[in-house]
Structures are given as C-alpha cells and as structure tokens.
Target: HIT-like protein
Amino acid sequence: MSSVFTKIINGELPGRFIYRDDTTVAFLSIEPVAYGHVLVIPVAEVDKWTDLDPQTWNQVNEVAQNIGRAIIEIFGSERAGYLIAGFEVPHAHIHVFPANDMSGYSLSNTMRADATDPAKMDDAAARLREALDTDEQGFPR
Model:
C-alpha cells in the first residue's frame, strides 16, 4: 500500500508543493511546528533514510539545504531546523522549518491541521516557491 506521501506526490491527496524533480519532492507539512515547515521527501518509497542509496540521499539533502536557506531569508529565523524522525509516516523524509530555538525539534509542538490558518499556509508556500523559482506544483520554472 502506498504511503500518504506517495499519495500526495501522485496527486491522490492535496499538498502545497514547494519543489519537485525526478528524485525529490518538497511540500508543506499539514501539522507544522511553524508556518513554513517543509517536508523534503525522496520520490522512491523507502521507509528509513538509512536505506536510501547515496545518490538519492545527497539529492534530498541538497534540496533540504536550498529550502533551509530560503526559510531563513523569508521567515527571518536564526536558523533552519533540520530533523529526521520517520515514525509518523513510513516514507523517509526530512523536516525543515524556521527555528529560533529548540522548540521546533519536538514534533509534539506541532499545530493541528485543523488549527492552521489556510491563508498563512498558502502564503508560506507561495513565498517559498518564489524564492526557489518553482511553479505551483514545485517544478523549476
């Protein structure tokens, strides 16, 4: 059975896409620790990041780093947080988020999906796509 991330990647479930190429996809988390919280995911459905082939791992991290730079610029955060947990969805993924302290590193501090402001989520996605020069599906322009 496909993971929820594969269903988002394939368009079976909605997602606010930030970036997409043949190897990697990035979209906003529906339960963010802060507005601008992005999940960077390999297209290949691999459960553990430690099982990714080195080439895919390098590409996913390069995308995460570029998104992290954009997050710092757009949201004015001191840092871009980077977290791998992997217990929520059995599909390798990196959390990248605006960070000014350690609170975002606890995924128990997320906003519930029904408590996020859709306008703020849309704005965060649009600003990140603009910084990365990608379209609404995350593809480079």
